[in-house]
Amino acid sequence: MLRIVRETFAFRPVLAVAALVAGLSATAHAAFPERPVSLIVPVAPGGTMDIAGRALANLLKDELGTTVIVENKPGGSGNIAYGQVARAKADGYTLLFSYEGFHTGNPAITPDLQWDPKKSFEPIAEITRAPHVVLVPKDSAVKDLKGLVEFAAKNPGYANFGSSGIGSIQHLGAELFAQIAGVQLMHIPYNGAAPAMQDLLANRIHLFITTPPTVMGHIKGGNVRALALTAQSRAPSLPDVPTTAEQGYPEFQLEAWFSLFAPAGLPEDVKVKLVDSVRKVVEGADFKKAMVELGAAASYQGPEELAAIVERDLAKWDEVVRKSENKTAKTP
Predict the structure, then answer these.
(1) How far apart are CA 332 and CA 320, in angstroms?
(2) 137-162 confidence digits (pLDDT tens)
(3) How far, in Å, CA of 316 to CA of 319, rounded?
(4) Residue 40 contacts residue 96 (beta carbons within 8 Å)
(5) How far apart are CA 107 and CA 116, in angstroms?
(6) Pick from 130, 134, 170, 133: which is nearest to 149 by CA?
(7) Same-fold call for 36-129+256-320 versus 133-253
């Protein structure tokens, strides 16, 4: 009996130490974040995505109580950044500011991706959405969408469009319009929206479809001609630009989403902290104002909704790409 009692008392310090270690571990984990968080943006500085990402980072730091550092990782149509985040430790300190075209377009275009659009990432929240504007050079003979379709029909294989890269919404969106209108457009990919815009300004390409924020000054300054906004209703920032719906193409709706993801396997408590913090930012007046000034709109959707959006758009862009490939293969 004495031996059993002694063994019991001897075991208690071990239990106490184990409990202390577990408590310290839980406390450390609950303290997220204890150091700066990196927000990986898969494009070069200056475009709509970069500006929106920086607006998010600037406000998110106050909610998280730590610095949120924006790291631009352009190249490979976003694949460099996506691969980096997919391989990162799932601890909440590396986040991806994702773009619809890269996230759901690349899988249909690139068969050997080093990341999976669903399995590699933990959805946190949709952040913002932006419509697109259809642009032609200011001296173009094309005045509206009808004129664009007529020009393309008369010049198959010659009429072209620029994009910020293969798999971007500029690329896939123009392919979608060509399918809807029943015309052929030649794709000229650039390493970002800025060089594509420069060639449009110089009248070296016929068409460019992009989000309004980075081209607003050129539109209002008369440096380019805006044919249409890819939306059901006109934008307050571009009241004189008619919509695709107004011009007889209501099915041509093109609205890019930008969302936050983390590496797959994120601890649940860290995920909850991130989701709650991001929601407060996106639903706040400051972020909403910043997005309106960009020509975009704050658009919060939680993890489950975002996962469903990814699922839907993977199917959508896969169909667009398959139709485009089939059409090209049949063209003599």
Answers:
(1) 20
(2) 999 999 999 999 999 999 998 999 99
(3) 5
(4) yes
(5) 8
(6) 134
(7) yes
Average pLDDT over residues 98-125: 93
**Residue 110 is encoded by which pair of tokens?**
């690139």
Q: Which CATH architecture has domain 133-253?
A: 3-Layer(aba) Sandwich (3.40)
pTM value is 0.79
Q: Which two tokens stand for residue 291?
A: 């997005």
> What's the CATH superfamily of 36-129+256-320?
Bordetella uptake gene, domain 1 (3.40.190.150)
CA-to-CA dists, residue 1 to 11, 13, 122, 124, angstroms: 16, 20, 55, 57
CA dist list (Å): 263 to 123, 181, 231: 9, 39, 33
Element (H, E) at 245: none
Closest CA to 61 of 84, 36, 78: 36
β-sheet bridge partners, residue 125: 260
Q: What are the tens digits of pLDDT across the range 289-315? A: 999 888 788 999 999 999 999 999 999
Q: Is-contact 123 97, C-beta < 8 A? A: no
Query: What is d(CA 91, CA 265) in angstroms, rounded to the nearest whole number?
Result: 8
179-203 tens-digit pLDDT? 999 999 999 998 778 889 999 999 9
Domain boundaries, the chain: 36-129+256-320, 133-253
Could you give the angle at the alpha carbon of 45 between the alpha carbons of 44 and 48, nearest 5°? Answer: 95
Could you tell me how many residues make up the chain?
332
Token representation of residue 181: 């209108």
